[in-house]
Write a structure and sequence with these properties.
The chain is α+β, with helices and mostly antiparallel strands. It has three domains: 120 residues, DNA Polymerase III, Chain A, domain 2 (Roll); 107 residues, DNA Polymerase III, Chain A, domain 2 (Roll); 118 residues, Proliferating Cell Nuclear Antigen (Box). Helix content is 18%, strand content 42%. The chain has a nine-stranded antiparallel sheet with strand order 14-11-12-13-26-25-24-18-22. A hairpin with a 2-residue loop joins strand 2 and strand 3. Helix 1 packs antiparallel against helix 2, helix 3 runs antiparallel to helix 4 and helix 5 runs antiparallel to helix 6. The chain is elongated, with a radius of gyration of 26 Å. 36% of the residues are buried. Belongs to the beta sliding clamp family. It is found in: Cytoplasm. One of its GO terms (molecular function) is DNA-directed DNA polymerase activity. This is Beta sliding clamp.
């Protein structure tokens, strides 16, 4: 194999596939990047147990300055190879692989020789044997990921909760995640497919995918039995799907409430951040919210026996219903509030020991965050 390429274009693609490579893998060849050269260009592949990323650098794109002199393939250790390419002195570089799997990298007056591995030993990427695909707007899908992935569980004791549950049917896409302490659900109208889909993607895979999608980029999704493939630009992103039945989360969302407050999400977020400065010093990490409808006032309290207390009063846009005192983990509520941006929200409570919901005041059913309170007595 032999080719020359513009270094900046190569680095960009190397960075893309490196996202899928883990140094902790038990399969040594997966610490490497697979490089395949043919008449159409280069195909770079990186993989771990959960995700695989494949991207193409095409010869017909003049910006790549790619010339394939001799086709072939090799696997090169990602850590060494990527760092070498980034440090090369010239704007272009050449890679030559001999029959002994020694790769020679030259650029300007610099020359490196590193050992490679046979590409024939690299695991095959999953086969997605379907032409059925669903197309999303990249910015919408990124928003859905950011609003739901915050609630996935980090505990492997219930693996199914480490993913986001997607249901596509009846012209709607529902995405929901819960770790049993909180829940995040987003619903959008979607008419891009007549088929029904029901699948669970690991939260870690979605977080990585979100970092790669560019705004206004079209995103094509294909589902197989236990794999999902996302196609965007010249990149293919594969992720395994979680197997099993996701719990019925619809029954967790209260239909009625006895106390409601409305206020700007950033105002409450800033106040809880101040209150949690002291609550974080306490082993319990709890903030108390006191709602007084008679005086149209709410009060936040945080304390640590070793440090001190903080108390702050807020005037919400509106408050109605019964008086209430409720305690919660401030980190859960801060995550929920950040996902709303600068929106006006309504928080609805049914009792001091029942989960409460946060929704935007406009189109409230499209986005729901739910938090379970903390019992303090």
């Amino acid at each position: 194999m032999k080719f020359s390429i513009k270094r900046s274009a190569f680095i960009q693609s190397l960075n893309t596939v490196s996202r899928a490579i883990s140094s902790k893998t038990t399969i040594p060849i997966l610490t490497g990047i697979k490089i395949t050269a043919d008449a159409e260009g280069l195909i770079l592949t990186g993989s771990n147990a959960d995700i695989s990323i494949e991207t193409q650098i095409k010869t017909d794109n003049p910006d790549n300055e790619l010339e394939i002199t001799e086709p072939g393939s090799i696997v090169l250790t990602a850590g060494f190879f990527v760092n070498i390419v980034k440090k090369l002195p010239d704007t272009t570089m050449q890679l030559t692989v001999g029959n002994d799997l020694q790769a020679t990298i030259t650029s300007g007056q610099s020359e490196f020789t590193i050992k490679g591995l046979s590409a024939s030993n690299y695991p095959h990427l999953p086969e997605i044997d379907t032409d059925d695909s669903v197309t999303f707007s990249g910015d919408i899908f990124k928003e859905i990921i950011s609003q739901t992935v915050i609630a996935v569980s980090t505990q492997e004791s219930r693996p199914i909760l480490t993913g986001v549950h997607f249901v596509l049917k009846d012209g709607q896409l529902l995405a929901v995640a819960t770790d049993s302490h909180r829940l995040s659900q987003r619903v959008i109208n979607f008419s891009g497919s007549d088929r029904e889909y029901n699948f669970i993607i690991p939260g870690k895979s979605l977080s990585e995918l979100s970092r790669m999608i560019e705004d206004h980029q079209e995103l094509q999704m294909r589902i197989a039995e236990n794999q999902v493939l996302f196609i965007f630009g010249d990149t293919y992103f594969y992720s395994r799907l979680l197997e099993g039945n996701y719990p019925d989360t619809s029954r967790l969302i209260p239909e009625e409430s006895n106390t409601r407050i409305q206020l700007e999400a950033p105002v409450l977020l800033a106040s809880i951040e101040r209150a949690s400065l002291l609550s974080h010093a306490s082993r319990n990490n709890v903030v108390k919210l006191t709602i007084d409808p008679n005086n149209a006032m709410i009060k936040l309290t945080g304390d640590s026996p070793d440090v001190g207390t903080v108390e702050e009063e807020l005037e919400p846009e509106s408050v109605d219903g019964d008086a209430l005192e409720i305690s919660f983990n401030p980190d859960y509520v801060k995550d929920a509030l950040r996902s709303f941006g600068k929106t006006m929200i309504q928080i609805s409570f049914s009792s001091a020991l029942r989960p409460f919901t946060l929704k935007p005041t406009e189109d409230g059913d499209s986005f729901i965050q739910l938090v379970t309170p903390v019992r303090t007595f």
